[in-house]
User: Fold these one by one.
Assistant:
Number 1:
Amino acid sequence: MPPVIAIQGLSKTYASGFQALKSIDLDIRRGEIFALLGPNGAGKTTLISIVCGIVRASSGSVTVDGHDIVSDFRAARGLIGLVPQELTTDAFETVWDTVSFSRGLFGKPRNPEHIEKVLRDLSLWSKKDSKIMTLSGGMKRRVLIAKALSHEPRILFLDEPTAGVDVELRKDMWEVVRALRASGVTIILTTHYIEEAEQMADRIGVINKGEIVLVEEKATLMRELGRKQLALQLNGRLHAVPEALQPYDLTLAEEGATLVYTYDTQGDRTGITGFLQDLSRAGIEFHDLQTTQRSLEDIFVDLVRQRR
Amino acid sequence: MISNLRAVRAIYVFEMARAGRTLLQSIVSPVLSTSLYFVVFGAAIGSRITEIDGVPYGAFIVPGLIMLLLLTQSVANASFGIYFPRFTGTIYELLSAPVSYGEIVLGYVGAAATKSVILGLIVLATAALFVPLQIEHPVWMLVFLVLTAVTFSLLGFIIGIWADGFEKLQLVPLLVITPLTFLGGTFYSVSVLPPLWQKLALLNPVVYLISGFRWSFFGTSDVNIGVSLAMTLVVLGLCVVGIAWIFRTGYRLKA
Ligand SMILES: Nc1ncnc2c1ncn2[C@@H]1O[C@H](COP(=O)(O)OP(=O)(O)OP(=O)(O)O)[C@@H](O)[C@H]1O
Ligand SMILES: [Mg+2]
């Protein structure tokens, strides 16, 4: 199946001369939840803004369900709902009015039942006649989500949807997201919370300094995460890994005072027993040990650091 | 160019509702200021200048006053209407929606122009309380009213996109529109000026608007009515060109 969003050679240089995106290539699959991770200033919002029509690309192309975002912007944008990072709402309008306005803006006929459903799903129904300025920050975030869902988008962008949001809303939100995904909506979210990507996403992309440094199935990443390390503090120092221990995945650290064994917790056998036996057979003794597991966060930090 | 009529209507209704919330002040203040002009200029000065071109002074200033209001209100309404979403950031939604620039302009400028036409008619009714008025060409009166409201709402839209602060939003109305209106013959006929000043006055586009509008009331004018109409259309055309340029370049709308 062709990707629902195809991004090719997309670059953005702002008027200040700052290059925020450097030739991005990225395909988003139909119906997936794609998490875009990256440090502050990586270019996540810029990327989303270009796809949604808020920022102009300097070069490259984007198609949304086959529609070019420039030459066929109506068809492309009509499919997209956007929840922006910043809490930018009207102030004096009521919740109902602002959400209905969004639906009209996207050219959809009036449908009070749909608006009601969206407001109820987001626990906003009791606030429907409140002026937006009287709402709390979390409630405003809900309003932004309701606006984005008012016109029944097939693709939803959530730009850091959980920043400054309490546990309750986060739970509500993920429920809504899961229901949307079940109905075939493609979801692209950016986040700083790696657990969130871990929980929600089908695929994870990492962006740093305007470049996509990794796009991977979450399952594959989780397998990578399944790898554990056993560090042994030796009684002496080793200059090299002994011949007899070569079959094991070993590295030396701290100038030979620590021996690190990397193994897969998800394999049938971790090989720890055999390794320890071979170790004592080789006459190597240790006085302490730790095991550590790489988290997605570590992988992420490594990736970002490598590119510095 | 215009196919998402629902969006145009959404913007139009939104903007009209904004005016509705501040209904009292948006009607009271212009009515009050117009009444003040009548008291000061109509009564005080009118007692000395009895007639201009055969029209009693009190009645003579009515078209000019309406124009003054129309110009300032159109510019203020339209510039604020588009500047405010830029300022708060809610413009993101407009830019990400499947709407063309033509539709955006139609919604915002249409609403701003509607508001000023309504205000103009209210002030006209207020004026009728002070002085006996006759309108010789009511259809042309409406044509000039609508054309002027649209033209200056377009200008206001341009200002609202150009401005990058609230001061700039008020700069053009204050430094350009108001002086041009006062110098454009709101309170006098351009023909009373010395010849050199008459020539200079003809560089002021507002002269043509007021003259044409006054003609629709009294059947007499400083400038030929055809010329007035043509000049009004030229100014309108210039604003349209300006807006087309803004949208083609994305000027101050998109990074
Ligand atoms: N309008 C602009 N003009 C100039 N530079 C900009 C503009 N908008 C963003 N930038 C710069 O582009 C870079 C990418 O910004 P962007 O907002 O896309 O990052 P981000 O990944 O969304 O960051 P965050 O996690 O903080 O939201 C930043 O260095 C930012 O300063
Ligand atoms: Mg961002």
Number 2:
Amino acid sequence: MPIHEKSLIRPENLRTHENLTIDGVDVSGHWSTFIESRVVTDYNEAMEDEIAALPGGEHIHRCWQCGSCTNSCTVNAIEPRFNPRYWIYLIRTGMESELLRDKDLIWQCVSCNKCTYACPRDVFPEGVMKATAHWLELKGHTPESPSTTFDKIFTDEIVQHGRIEDTKVLMKFLQKTKQPLLQDWLKQIAWNIGMRLPVKWGIKSAWSFVFHPKARRWSKARTAIQDYIIEKETEHKQALGLHKPKAANGNATQRKLHAAE
Amino acid sequence: MVDITDRARKLREVAYYPGCALEGSGNGYDVSTRAIAYELGLKLQDVKDWNCCGAMEVKNIDPKIQTYLSSRVLSQAVNATKNNVVMAPCNGCYHNLKKAEYDLAHDAASREVVSTLSSKAGHKTYEAGQAETIHALDWIKDTIGEEGLRKRTKGRLAGMKIANYYGCMYVRPRHIFPEKDKGPGSESTSKPHFMDDLLAASGAENVEFPLKTACCGGAHTLSDSDTSTKLVLNILQAAEASGAEVIATECPTCHSGLEMHQIRAEKRFGKKTTVKILYFTQLLGLALGIKPRKLGIQQNISNSLEFIHEKGLT
Ligand code: SF4
Ligand code: SF4
């Protein structure tokens, strides 16, 4: 499985020397840059199976490394280090430490599915990106990404009420991620809307804060979904060989979802 | 060939699933959809007790919960009207209902989860094939059609240069849209044209716009705002470079993403763009002679009222 991209030679693996003579030949300076040779000894053989066990990762084994995903990728176009094909290669060969160098990029996938559209092998690379980001968090390699925080707040709102009220989700997210509510661009947006509908907008937002939009007859669905989430979380942790912390006071998932509030 | 008139008759009354965004930030889309339905004599039967389709976020927590949420909507929609057609103007809702339909038809594990959750929640389990999901674009295209619009709009949008922006969820992933890419007359997933067709029939001049199905970064509009701003800026600049005065949208997430990040690009990166952003239903409404206020245009974040006035559409 070839690696073509030049960017894969990382700056930290390049060596130049101010003063170096080897066998009487002066190799100082820029003209003889060395690439540090690489010996991989610590393959993580379980990595592919673990990621395949998480939702979205199921079809990773089909990949034949054509590179169509990276080629079509929305995020790759603005961040060249975002490289789904390469990550799939690393996962399948078990090169964990190399994958971890990009751990803070993987969650940035915007789920546009351009890769899914282009992939000739139905790998569903978008799903693989989500499964990999999920794996990194479950293994404790990365803290919870802002994207996961948002997903949790959003999902919790739906599980609780059946519906979403977007201003409320926005406020909760900004609070949770410790961002100021009055950022210049958000202020401008509020101003733009407020300029044209001051009274109605104010009443509407206040109204939906007090009376959260709800799906009716939702309580049974809520419990059913909560139970399912707990069941799945246990399953994922088992697949990754992680011990479930003893459920001391009942319901781990509810606590986790509520922690998002 | 399907008998067009039968189809048109069938779709004159559809179940309407607005979804959360159309009740919140995308309210202008809801208002304008209802306004043109009224004007065109099409009946919208609101789905009762609907819930969120699961959006993108629930899928990231667990895709099967999203399938369940969407299937609950479908089960509510079944029997809302005689013909079991549910129309969703939001790309996210439309996409999720389609995806649930596909998964329920092809994946036994999804069927099992949906049936377990449905019976625990105490409602009928939705089964694949009981309802048909269509987008607002299909709805207008199949009921009124280009011919009908040509007659009713009298070319009111003449001289307006429009870039048609469809986004991701209307076309990708391809496998959940079995009716697309079926040759002439069907929608294309690589170069969609339904919105172009409807606006052209109303007199507008569609520009050649290369980023019709580019991504606006809606998934990370708040969690990775710089990425979203870059993606949106690219779309806005490409539209201006194509000569467009307006970007027509058909998704509340794309629409508010474009509007929000147009402001953010100016505030954060000093890149100002002036292209207007309007829902296609607002544009069709104007073409049908409906007043901007009745189309919720004042609810949009960006101000297009002066522009509309200049075009003589008030
Ligand atoms: S879904 Fe993610 S990985 Fe795939 S093309 Fe889009 S941004 Fe890239
Ligand atoms: S497009 Fe599909 S087969 Fe090709 S490299 Fe990407 S995941 Fe692998």
